[in-house]
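Data availability (excerpt). The following record was deposited with the supplementary files.
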Amino acid sequence: MHRLRFSTVVAFPLVMLVLVISAPLSAAEVPPDLTEAYADMEAWLGRYPQGPGWHRYLHTEQLRAEMAKGEAADREQVAAILAKFRSGAKGLDDHHFVNVAKALARWHDEHLLPPADELVELARADSETFIEMDADDVATAKQTLASATDTLGSWLDRYGDNGARWKRFLNFSDLEAQLAASEPDLAVLEGVARQFTSDTNGLEMPKYLAVRDALRVYLDTHQVAHNPTIKQQVQQQTKVLTRLLEKPTGELTVREREAIGQRLAFFERMGQSPTLVRAVRRHHSHVNFAGYVTEDVVAAAGYRDVDRSQEGIRDSVLGTSLIIDAKTKAEVTADVVPNEERAAFQLLLTGVVRTDAVGFNRGVTIYSTGRSTISGRKMFFLDENGLSTEPATARARTNNHIDGISAKRRFVERIAWRKASKQKCAADRIGARKTARRVRADMDDEATDRLADAKRKYDDGFRDPLVRRAAFPEVMKFRSTDEVLQLELLQASRKQLGAPQTMPALEVSNDIGMRMHQSLINNLAASLYAERTLTSEEVEKESENSPLMRRFKEKQRAKREAAGEADDELDKPWAITFAKRPITVEFFDGQVKLTIRGTRFEGDGPVNERDMSIWVVYKFELGDNQGLKLALQEWDVVPTEVETGGRIEFADEPLRQKLKKRFAEIFKDVELDPLELPGEFKKAGQFAYTQVQSEEGWFSLGLDRIPGSGAIKDRVAKAKAVSLDADDSPSAAIVETGEATAGPSASRR
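Predicted structure:
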């Protein structure tokens, strides 16, 4: 089982981000990507007998009619058709359907949704409407679930005992029994659904996700079709949402925004008010993280010297068998490449290969030396799927010199010299081609190993835990310019909202910069920890897996030992079961308030089941050591109802004092050392915290490299030139291998 590390959540977004700008459309147009995607899908369906069935299911005739209207299209119709494309029916994961769904969603959201000042009117109108679901809708959802279940079951059966253990864990027999029943037991299916959403390594695989999502759709569709009060529930919740939307956005409290998000999720699950749901999200849920790293930092991570010797290389050129000793001296640098679709950077290799060769051809021995000037490029891309690459390209200029020729007879040597002189240009071209091919192969081989390691870290530490918990960012956009890699995130699940307003502009003024809204941490914590139990053993294990946390704990322990403070409370085992709102932060006036809410507390005595909140306020200060200091301001432990106007009762004191004793060992000033990035980025050295800001829910950081603290070299300008040495003679051969590096429109992996 892998848990998402908080340090990973914070560190990963510091690496990149994107901004996609769409041009406005005239009233008679739809986006070209929608037109192209639809035409591609229509041509594809036309080749198969199942095509007419898919056209009926997806209401493509109505879609064509709405597309013909341009911006006068009926947004409710478009939203209903979009819901069909996203219904999860088996087969809709094919890229032909997915491309239409993505383009249709962009058209709907960017050009058909009502403006913010019409949301209240739209909500009032929707309070009087209800989208019915009947037996056919339930049957379709059941069929999709049954198909996904059969696929998963057959796949698990191929793995013997391990597959059987997975089936027992997932209560697979209960799922199959309910699918076989004429009327399902929804409580049993809800229990199965909980197993499929547990944080268990492996459940992020597509076959499990297909069952998880289809099961949720089936449960919700069945409820709408068979619950006699669901219409009244939907109408009541729509009226509540209307009252919330009547308040100006800036006056909504955190809890009111949470209430809006919960109602949007309810409407989505019940298949109601699709346009209202999307419109509210568009106007009330904005990007809540932006970050960048500059090209200098990327260059530091990519820089390295190459000094390699190879002996006994066997080759053949123009019928001459060769034994070659080669010495390569080169340097690898990196620079950022502009790309609007994903972040892009390239590794650039420049250097020289010197060779000593002995050749054998029909009793003649040839002694030669050579010099090849080499250059190579390897493109890398960052997007929501992680790191990917394109084949390397390489270029070489070779100039060989024959030092001597020996043979048993002198006239044979003279003939060999004349022949070698005539073949020199051809031999140089062949040598350059082979040298470039080896450079390209070496760059590709090295990248393969690094990509595998990067993918493992990204999947295990970031993507997979979030996918399992249905908490992967709603938006993850990447972009690169000449100077920076950028990342934008919207961290919000179906029942959550992002930032309440558009993020203030993030100017590139540091080596590393970021701006984050408190909703990112609050949303992520709710998705990962709501109503879950966390033990001290799990925290300790997680800390050991994180170098950053290990250093922090060692420093804090050393400070306590120097002050003569005991660690008795920290060493005792404990466990906390979190509330539905488990952890929240508030950024304000240069400070942060952290609140931890629990419903069950274990350790050091009897188990206590009481809703309690532990809160602490820190002030951000730039440290004297170029680090960041969190200066403790105040903290307390109170019953959770105190947050909403309740009072502390006498019966609360034993648990309050117990928790205060434990957290008194934790809540102290926190001093962070200058930042040291992990992996290849460690070569950049340490980064000083030079800017920190916390106000109105936003937190911003700026970090700059401490001069002389790392191995960074000013090689970017030289790397961009990537020119071959001009010292070689005009007769030297120049050969390039590999395809030209693709630009922003290149196909993705």
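Summary of structural features: Residues 31-129+228-284 form one domain.
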